[in-house]
Design brief:
By secondary structure, the protein is an alpha/beta fold. The chain has 2 domains: 257 residues, Rossmann fold (3-Layer(aba) Sandwich), CATH 3.40.50; 98 residues, Orthogonal Bundle (Rna Polymerase Sigma Factor, Chain: A). 35% of the residues lie in helices and 15% in strands. The chain has an 8-stranded mixed beta sheet with strand order 1-4-8-5-11-12-13-14, with helices on both faces. Strand 2 and strand 3 form a beta hairpin. The radius of gyration is 21 Å and the shape is globular. The two termini are 20 Å apart.
Length: 379
């Protein structure tokens, strides 16, 4: 077996689409751009391509570094590279920043050609099905008719699922990780509280803060802190932080005293300098609206009846944001529709964030399934 390595130094690319796209919300964008990265080599018959769909705060930088001196790597670097579960010696891997994103693809901070100003509040809401259509156009531009696999965790898993419904003949395998067929009321509630933190920030200016030279940093910081709590498990938090005090004694005030408070504020502060508030609003709404069964009388098995892909569904025991029971709903619907599906429930203390972690059992499942795909391609 090849010893796992990094994909090394990578470069982002940009695809420009001058053909208008009609969005599910009823708005049409006359043109848009998508930023993406690729790793590995596309084979002669273009049958070894894998699309990675990112989650809420993800982007196109999935693996590798932009310079040898960089300390940070792509957000799924432990999964993608030579000899890793998604082996770039075998697969041509694509990561992209979705439409509405804030890492180079057309989004709220981009310039609206009609006004010469940032879109801001005028940028339309995008749904998961819209992302799938833009991803399909990117695949067309690369000459890829069918993906060997489409893989995603959380919101990325929803995109993988949507692909199998919207373009059933273009997906051989869909890997749906730590995801759900639709959000629960509790999840929608968490998203709304996060949005309210941003919407009520005085620096938000109705979404047009770019023109005011401000950033709704306080709102975005709170939204991230709330979200981060839901991505972790109670056991994981307890083991890492417990009730540890920074100074070892109570200070009887409202400043940071507990280590968990320090950690959450650090995460919130960091995120508020790296992410765009309007994009956060769009991404959480896309999560809320996702429900492929809606067009099929609420019957998920009917929605999945026309799919042609084979599926791997993965969940994690301590993920309470997207619990294993939600993954099992997907599995049941696929079985009811007589589809080929494998399921793995991984023991983990990392909560929802487990899909990003380097866990031997999880990586073992991924490696075994991806090996199967590589063998199919080689036949």
């Amino acid at each position: 077996m090849t010893q796992p390595q990094s994909v090394g130094v990578v470069t982002a690319q940009k695809a420009v689409f001058d053909q208008p796209i009609s969005l599910a919300c009823g708005t049409t964008l006359p043109r848009y751009e998508l930023v993406y990265e690729t790793y590995g080599q596309l084979n002669a018959d273009k049958s070894n391509a894998i699309l990675i769909c990112h989650a809420l705060s993800g982007n196109h930088h999935v693996a590798g570094k932009y310079a040898e001196t960089d300390k940070a790597t792509g957000w799924w670097d432990n999964m993608i590279g030579p000899g890793k579960p998604i082996d770039t010696n075998r697969f041509f891997v694509i990561g992209l920043n979705n439409l509405g994103g804030c890492h180079g693809s057309t989004g709220p901070s981009s310039i609206d050609p009609e006004t010469g100003k940032p879109y801001g509040s005028r940028f339309p809401l995008v749904l998961v099905r819209d992302w799938v259509e833009t991803q399909a156009r990117l695949a067309d531009s690369l000459g890829i008719d069918r993906f060997a696999a489409i893989i995603g965790g959380s919101l990325g898993g929803m995109q993988a699922l949507r692909w199998t419904i919207s373009h059933p003949q273009r997906v051989r395998h869909a890997l749906v990780i730590a995801s759900a067929p639709k959000l629960t009321a509790q999840n929608i509630a968490f998203n709304d509280v996060a949005r309210q933190a941003i919407l009520t920030d005085p620096e938000f200016h109705g979404g047009d803060y770019y023109e005011h030279g401000t950033v709704p940093r306080r709102g975005l910081r709170l939204a991230r802190m709330l979200g981060h709590i839901t991505y972790l498990s109670d056991d994981g938090m307890g083991e890492k932080f417990g009730r540890l005090l920074r100074s070892g004694e109570y200070k009887y005030g409202f400043d940071v005293e507990f280590e968990i408070e320090s950690y959450l504020r650090y995460q919130g502060d960091k995120f508020s300098t790296l992410f765009d508030a309007n994009t956060y609003l769009l991404m959480t709404k896309a999560l809320d609206y996702f429900d492929p069964s809606r067009d099929y009388e609420g019957d998920l098995s009917k929605a999945l009846a026309q799919t042609a892909a084979k599926f791997l569904v993965v969940s994690f025991t301590t993920d309470w944001r997207f619990s294993p029971s939600r993954s099992r709903e997907i599995v049941k619907a696929l079985l009811d529709a007589r589809k080929d599906v494998s399921y793995a429930e991984i023991e983990s203390q990392h909560g929802h964030d487990a899909f990003l972690m380097e866990d031997p059992a999880y990586h073992g499942v991924m490696r075994a399934y991806l090996n199967r795909i590589a063998e199919e391609i080689a036949r």
